[in-house]
Structures are given as C-alpha cells and as structure tokens.
Amino acid sequence: MKVIMMKTSIFMLILFLGSYTEATAQADEQKYENEILSLINTDIVKEAFEYIKSIDDETGKDHILLTEIPAPPFKEGVRAEKFAEMLQDAGPDKTWIDDVGNVLAYRKGKSSGKLVAIGAHMDTVFPEGTDVTVKYRGDTLFAPGIGDDTRGMAIILAVLRTLEAQKIETVNDVIFIGTVGEEGLGDLRGVKNLFGENGPGIDSWISVDGAGLARIVNGALGSTRYRITFRGPGGHSWGAFGLVNPQHALGRAIKYFTDEAEEYTRKGPRTSYNVGRIGGGTSINSIPFDAWMEIDMRSVSPEKLEGVESILLKSVEKALNDQNGMRRAGPELKVYIDKVGERPSGIIDPDTPLIQRAKAAIRYFGENPTLSTSSTDSNVPISMGIPAITIGRGGIGAQNHSLDEWWINKEGYKAIQLALTVLLAEAEIYK
Ligand SMILES: [Zn+2]
Questions:
Q1: How much distance in Å is there from the Cα of 41 to the middle of ligand 1?
Q2: pLDDT, tens digit, for every residue of 184-234?
Q3: Is the pTM of this model over 0.90?
Q4: Torsion angle of alpha carbons 291, 306, 117, 191, nearest 10°?
Q5: CATH number of the structural domain 35-221+345-427
Q6: pLDDT, mean of residues 174-192
Q7: Whole-number Å distance between alpha carbons of 198 and 192
Q8: Separation of 384 CA from ligand 1 center, angstroms?
C-alpha cells in the first residue's frame, strides 16, 4: 500500500514537472513573440520595412551584379573587392578585407557591449570559366550561384543600406560579412579565421544561407575528410613478386574500416562514412607504387565523429601492419595520412534568445519555423557554443550547385525584413 502511494506521488510529481516545463516553455515563447512584435511595431522598424520594399529594384541589380562576378573556390578575390566597395558605399564606419579574404564592414553601436555579426558566403562551387551570366525566363533568374549564396550577399548589403539610410542606431556593434571558403574544400576557412585568434570577437552570429524563410539551422553537421595513400617501391607483378602491395593494403583498410564503422554507426546520433574515391597503380601486371582513397565522415555529434575517425585510423594501421607482415622482399610499405577537411559539429540550445527571436520573427512572416542541422558557416561558432544560426534567403529557387540554378524574387524583400528583425533583436535599437 505504502509502495503504491509512493509510486503514485512520484507519478504525480512527474506529471507536475512535465506540465511545469511545458508551461515555462510556452511562457518563454510568448515572451519572445511579444518582444519581436513590439520591435516590429515601432515606427523605426515599420519605416525600415517600407524602405526595404522601396529599394527592391536596387537590391535586385546588386544581386545580379554580384552573381556575374565569378567566385570559384579559393578565387573569391574579385567578388570580394566589389562587395567591399558596395558595403563601404552604404556608409559603415569601416570596411576591410582580412588576411584570408573575408570582407568585413563594421558599424559601431552606442555602447559597444557585444558584437553581432551577419554574413553570407561569397564563394560558389563553380570552377573558373563557368558562364555566370544571369539569364531570364519570365520572372525566373537562371545563373550558377544566383541563390547559393549570392542572394544572401545582396540581403546583407540591403540590411546595411537600410540601417544607414534610416539612420537606425544600435546599442551593440554590428559587423556585416562576406565569407570565403564555405563550399567544399574551402573547409570553412573564412569563418574559422573570423572565430580564430585574430578574429574581431563576434558574440552572436547570423548567417543568411539556405532556401525559403522557415528554416533555422541551429545544429552543425560536422565532417572530417581524409586522403590516405599507401606507398611501396612498385615492380613487376611476376619478377618482383613479394614486394609490399599498396592496393592490397588499401583493400584491407577499406574492409576493416567499413566492417567496424557499419556497426558503430547503427547506434546513437546519426553518423555517416563514405569512401568516395580510390585510385593508384599503373598497369595490370605491375605491383603499384601507390594506392589512395578519399574518405568523408559526418556526424551531428562531435564524439561520434571522433569515434568513426579513430576507427578509420586504426583500420589503416592494421592494414599497413598486415601488408608488412606479408612482405617477402624489398622495403616496408608506408602510409601517408592527410586530413583534407574538418568541419566541427555541435548544437545551440533551442532556448537560446537568438533562436527564440528568429522563431518568433519567422512566425510574424506567416511561416512555421523549423530547426535543423546542416553544414554552413555557422558550424564554427556553433561548435564553440557561441549563439549562431543560419536563416533563409527567401524568394523561391532550387537546383543549387548545378548549372541550372534558379531563383525568383517572390516577396524576396521578406527575407531582408526578417534578417533585419533578427539582427535588431540581437543588436538592440538605440533610442
Ligand atoms: Zn550556401
């Protein structure tokens, strides 16, 4: 009887705590909803929203101008120079290009308590020589990079222009950024530099990248990439038989790796592994002098990512030892391990004010906000526990990373208004 009573009261307590946390979450949501609504209802913001609509044509021209300046991976320089010039013309306190090629435009706040940053990436996935001329079919704009992320750049510029033209002062400092190296092998080198030792000291980060309006990225999908090469002396398949064989070692390494990684990734946070490319060797009757593979591993969890990485390194070591154990002649097999990519993972608590504000702002624009995990510039601050999100660039578009990429300016101004709202909620209007 006593036991039952105790169980009942624990059950009641759980019920009580459950409804209590739910109630506080709702109260919190209401609080940010009110904060955003009262921000949007100030004359300053209402006028700013109208201004954003009134410069829609100009924003569209900037968007096209920037799209037509090629920005292949590691070659963002020309576009960066132009972007810096356009930002500076808008009238911030200072604009500069940092030592890795990021563009920064700084606008001082009234009390300089914290530094809020808003950025878009300048690089595209398209190699040099790609035709980036914008083509029109009705109201659809076609060009490689038209959406991802050149529209984001146009938004950053429009937000700065609005603050300057409307003479909106903020309490905190704001910095407007175009980053390098977001795509592929760029390996986030732009944001890594911004959040590194020589960075400006950003306290809050808003990235504008991704389709639509509803999505908020608060989770960083981390990845680790390797290129692994086995090397031996090489020789005739018959005459030099008994030398170490790099291809045989590679085959074993893949077998050991995939066997263990397969089991490891079936449980816990989502984690993937992929041997994407292999190569090496010169002919069917030659013992190859090298054999290589490229591996991509991803996880939403830093621990899992480290785990799958260590399985890879162990497997390579084991395959190397196996092959050297079979050696009948010649020198030992060697392995060269190059880490060619590292994007950190992590997650920002959905209760963080930045995320709550973005959610409330998205609701104001009539959309249902969704939290998601992705690989964007925000990975770096997220992994460091710095409040960071990636919000959408609006309009409608698709076919990113393809030559048929397109974008339509369907209420494109809304994404600019959204970016402005989230920025002002973080930076606070000085009245
Ligand atoms: Zn992008």
A1: 32
A2: 889 999 999 999 999 999 999 999 999 999 999 999 999 999 999 999 999
A3: no
A4: -20
A5: 3.40.630.10
A6: 95
A7: 10
A8: 21
